[in-house]
Design a protein that fits this description.
about 25% strand, Rossmann fold, six-stranded parallel sheet, Dihydrodipicolinate Reductase, domain 2, 16 strands, alpha/beta
């Protein structure tokens, strides 16, 4: 038979550990849509839920647990869609088995686990240079990341003076609501609400690791009922304020997150400089630029909406990028393990500021 001239690509065989909301909404459909990718096996929290996911997405088999995915000789890559408590053990085992890894964010429960994951990847890469380790990126700012970086690089704001992140809602205001995984220290670790998501975006824009100067948090409902009907002590803050400073620019950092704010929800980032400021309304997906008016000390009233050029507008490409890194050697950018280590180090610094050395 005559050749079509199209090179044949060996199938990339992926196993899934955990099939949470993001895996079902994003990863499974995303991988299934790519040519030459096979969904080989899944291990979810229960055999029943694993079987449901397998039927829905045409996955060939169900594994008894995550080790059945990591140890399978017919699996090339592992997608980890669990809560943070399993990210480190599964990632490390998969990398040691020579398998590529895509893990859900946050990277791990704490900096020690993240450091072990990074060390496992570096060790695996020494023996297998093409092995890929990727973390699902914080998605909230993908559309405008390139534009914000460009404006900062062009000096549109002048000297950066303040960076403010505010996200408030009433998600944790009901004292009778059951415990969620985000409030469970064993499952989530030192991760607090959306702090890591926002800080990852700041790393993309500023490439500067903030020094944590102070942190204050509060838990207002100290005990909640878990899914097993047992009461659990809540130790992850429901309201958090972090103060820090970026060493490269000297800019002040303020992060305020609340799940107990019963006024209108907010989700915004402000970057203020000597010549102007950026205001990003994440809820509306709107980016605004303020410029200081000549002869005036403030840019109030001079804001204009920033239109994101099509060429600069980022989008969700997690699954395609992961496959491209494996097949073509494309560098992992969103998000590599070194960047994950940076935001987990910040996460630990905040935790220590809240709790001391515990």
């Amino acid at each position: 038979m005559a050749s079509s001239g199209i090179p044949r690509v060996s199938p990339l065989r992926i196993g899934f550990v955990g099939a949470g909301e993001n895996t079902r909404l994003r990863h499974l459909p995303g991988f299934r849509a790519l040519p030459g990718v096979e969904l080989v096996a899944v291990a979810n929290r229960t055999p029943e839920s694993s079987a449901r996911v397998a039927r829905e997405f045409g996955i060939a088999r169900v594994a008894a647990d995550w080790r059945g995915i990591v140890d399978a000789p017919d699996i090339d890559a592992v997608c980890i869609g669990t809560w943070p408590y399993l990210h480190a053990p599964v990632s490390i085992a998969a990398l040691r088995a020579g398998k590529h890894v895509l893990t859900e964010a946050r990277m791990a429960r704490n900096g020690d686990e993240a450091g072990a994951m990074l060390a496992a990847w570096l060790q695996a890469r020494a023996a297998q240079p093409g092995i890929v380790a990727q973390i699902v990126p914080a998605p909230l700012t993908l559309a405008c990341d390139a534009t914000i970086r460009r404006l900062l690089a062009e000096g549109a704001l002048g000297q950066i003076r303040e960076v403010s992140v505010v996200q408030t809602n009433a998600a944790q205001a009901d004292p009778s609501a059951p415990l969620t995984w985000r409030q469970n220290l064993e499952w989530s670790g030192h991760n607090i609400m959306t702090m890591g998501i926002h800080y990852e975006a700041l790393l993309r824009w500023l490439d500067d690791d903030a020094d944590v100067r102070a942190a204050h948090g509060a838990v207002f409902t100290e005990e909640r009922q878990g899914g097993d009907g047992r009461p659990y002590r809540v130790r992850i803050p429901e309201s958090l304020t972090v103060l820090g400073r970026f060493p490269k620019t000297g800019a002040l950092l303020r992060i305020h997150l609340s799940g107990v704010d019963t006024t209108a929800p907010r989700n915004e980032v402000r970057i203020s400089g000597s010549e102007g400021g950026l205001f990003y309304d994440l809820a509306r997906g709107e980016l605004w630029l303020s410029r200081r008016l000549a002869g005036q000390g403030a840019a109030a009233g001079a804001a204009e909406r920033v239109e994101i050029a099509a060429a600069d507008r980022g989008e969700w490409r997690v699954e395609a990028d992961f496959v491209a890194s494996i097949r073509e050697g494309a560098p992992v950018r969103l998000t590599d393990f070194r960047t994950g280590m940076r935001y987990m180090r910040f996460t630990d610094d905040v935790w220590r500021a809240l709790h001391g050395s515990e």
